[in-house]
Write a structure and sequence with these properties.
This protein is of the alpha+beta class. Helix content is 25%, strand content 27%. It has a seven-stranded mixed β-sheet, with helices on both faces. The longest helix is centred in the middle third of the chain and has 21 residues.
Amino acid sequence: MLNRFRAPWPWLFALVLASPALAQSSRLPGAVEAALALRQVDGVKRVMLVAAHPDDEDTSLLALLARGMGAEAAYFSLTRGEGGQNLIGLELGEGLGVIRSGELLAARSVDGAGQFFSRAFDFGYSKTASETFGQWPRELLLSDLVWAIRTFRPHVLVSVFSGTPSDGHGQHQAAGLLARDAWEAAGDPSRFPEQLDLGVEPWTPLKMYRRTFFDPESATLALETGTLDPVFGRSYHQIAMDSRSRHGSQNFGTAQQPGPRQTHLAFIDSRVPSREDDPIFAGVDTTLATLAAPLGIDARTHVEAYRQAVSGARGALDVVAPARSLPHIAEAIGHLDPLIELAEARGTPEIRRELRRRRALLDEAALAVAAVRVELRSRSEILVPGQTAVLEARVWSGGDASVEAGAPRVDVPPGWAVTPMSPDEDAPPEDSGGFSRFFDRREEASHHDEAVPIEPGGLALWRYRVTVPADAETTAPYYLRNPRPGAFYDWTDDAATRTRPFQAPVLSGRAAIVIMGGGVEMPVSISSPFRYRGVDQASGEFWRPVQVAPRLSVRPVASHVIWPVSDSEPREVSLQLRSIDRGGVTGSIRLDVPPGWSVDPEQASFALERAGDETRLVFEVTPPASAVEGEFELSPIVTTPDGPLDAMDVTLIDYPHIEPRLMVASGAVRVVRFPIRVAERRVGYVMGSGDEGPQAIRQLGLGVEEIGPDDWTAEHLDRYDTIVLGVRAYEVRADLIAANRALLDWVSRGGTLLVQYNRLEFNDGDYAPYPIVIGRGRVTDENADVTLRLPDAAPFATPNTIRAADFDGWVQERGLYYPESWDDEYTELLGMRDPDEDVQTSSLLVAPYGDGLYVHTSLSFFRQLPAGVPGAFRLWANLLSIDARRWRGETAS
């Protein structure tokens, strides 16, 4: 039976949290929004969790603290997860870091916590803390964590890891050690004193705990997270699993199970009197009265009255008539404002921070219960230098309150120009277009730079023109502006962005409003970024951030070109040009090549009339006749009537579960010339999760076809000599699992199957012709010595002669998820090991099956090939070229 009745709060709250874009543009139901704000305006409680990666955080603890206890909670992640794999796309490295940073922000929008990062770049799996600190300067990362602590000022520090080998991953161990270091250093003014000149003060956390994921018997404190919160209609554990599910690139979708749940902590240290099993804030004076005591007796009176008013507002809050709490909120503000005046005159930074934060929260609560909505909107999503765009600010009194709204203030970067539009100016057409214009009433009334009264149910609208200067900076992530000097970012010293996920929105606004209703007259204000509203005809309205991009994107069709030194014939180099400027871009482009190289044509013209227009320009590039090895760069040079433009490859990383983010990279083509050959083979490829194997095969001059769900017939498979399975293919391709028997039959008929690494899910089925059990073994040292156990075997002998030197220059790691056991039918071809460990021999296994060959490799080709590592390409070419008949002849002899 269909249950047609649902309580209004839980489902509506879940709907709002279902999309990060919706959550950051739409408003929660008035009573819910006010209830959350009112939970945070009394006590002073702050907690920071410290760990290494996206997904290490305890989301249940964060949700309990931030949503349930009204505490400020934050997660400090050393890295952005750049060293992991990508289940949803091809991005790796910095691109994956942008995705996982966005996923953390999406998770925090659900569990209510804040987010901080260090400048560490996730260089991949490590096995010890010492190995990790060999890549990460320990003091550098400690300074980042200390900065975050001094900025956020937590009373309680929670380390997710212990700093011992029991943590597993060396980066986990490093996070545990850095948390202990920061516990001692953050309050010491002699540590990182240069930070004090940038506006922060020493801060000493009062209590420290550790999460007990790996040793539950050490827990001294259990916190109940399975309690159902009446405001949310869900438990904190359920909210946490909703938060956890935002990690889409890691395949972390999780059920939201009801029922009792607990999070466990181990007591580590305290600077206040407390027992190990005391509640988390025991011994920490979290009262506003204590914080405000130095302001004098007048402050004490106001604090008491303020707290009574807040209690009254909570008690009067009604889901059907939330405005009943408005007089109590007004009374609380009436006592808070004198406290703020006293604090500004003689208070500490701590009391000023806390009182200002409470004022902002009460303003949010007042607007929510009075049904006053402020919408700051841009008519353009992507701005380019030189463009003029239109911004709109709306104030709507959707309830019974009368409102007087001052003209909203628009905050822009230096050099930008803002001009209010007069009521008689015509607004430009909607960027979003679509069918919505037939249902959206025409809003002709606007106001100049003036305050206006708004009657109940009424709406006021202001419009502004904003002009982007010619030298406007793009909104690509701030930490990517400079090249990395190692396994850490060279980021700006700007105190406003340091340790933050991304820089602040490029356009923001502030509205000052007087609410008149319920016998009160209350001034409030709200700050918010301007965002773009679009309309999708299938799904409806959506909101996205406003970003600044270059006028033109120049993307090489192949950013890395593998070019055998024996090949001096011309090759085509293609550039995909796309206009980002609404007014279009015209000009010419040429390729700057190394001495001795030639290009035809020397210059090519282009004319793109509007944003989104694309064209492909093809240049024929000829290398010198002499066989010169090395790396070379082919750099596009763009000239327009307005002057030269930087040739930048502009990418919008855009997935439904995160906010879209721009990335900007050089449009140059990197050419790597070295000796390499490959046999003629017809190759089929089964795409896995986020690898660029087909492109690497095409770089070798071979044709390759991707095998889709309908291509598993024997007739279709017999078209190929070699079939390659992409990384983690059995984890993401249900059609492959269903067709595995047909694939092995194809091998037995004489095909060569090259299976790239899979994780433990591989052990759930009989996918290999002979038993293989995948383990967690890996060789993380990319410089680890490699032994060719059968140096004359076909994979090392033809068509390229492979030697140990071909393993020089590998990036991040040798391989991962090595088999821990395998049948005697397999031949082990390579030996390698990390320092102080046993040699692992299962990174490359070959076995005959019928008339064909089954090749299983855990080598990280998916990292080496996009990086253009010559030796990896040479071995890759040999594996593609391997001949089953020769292998059988060699093994028989």
